[in-house]
Amino acid sequence: MWLQWKFGLEKMALEWMTSFLTCRTQQVAYIGQLSPILPVPYGVPQESVLGPLLFLLYTTELHDVTKHGVTLHQYANDCQVYASMMTFN
């Protein structure tokens, strides 16, 4: 598993992360009506304490790209990867 190889997470930590991110559902209430309960197959729970850490784990390999002449800016839950070029007239 990638998290084990890249970050050295052991069995218990991997199981904990898996249980945190899987089998989640959501439901919306609007004007007294409830939507059906639906699974949430992707993403991290909003405003979770682990959100920033999981985002960094997910985007860690973007730093490898910066070795090839592109720039990386990351802040909170956003990132930009770009290259600058000189223009010739």
Walk me through this protein's architecture.
There is one protein chain. By secondary structure, the protein is of the alpha+beta class. It has 2 domains: 1-43, no CATH class; 45-89, no CATH class. 34% of the residues lie in helices and 20% in strands. The protein contains 4 helices and 6 strands, in the order ααββββααββ. Strands 1-4 form a two-stranded antiparallel ribbon. The protein has a two-stranded antiparallel ribbon with strand order 2-3. A two-stranded antiparallel ribbon has the order 5-6. Strand 2 and strand 3 (33-34) form a beta hairpin. The chain is flat and about 60 Å long. The N and C termini lie far apart (50 Å).
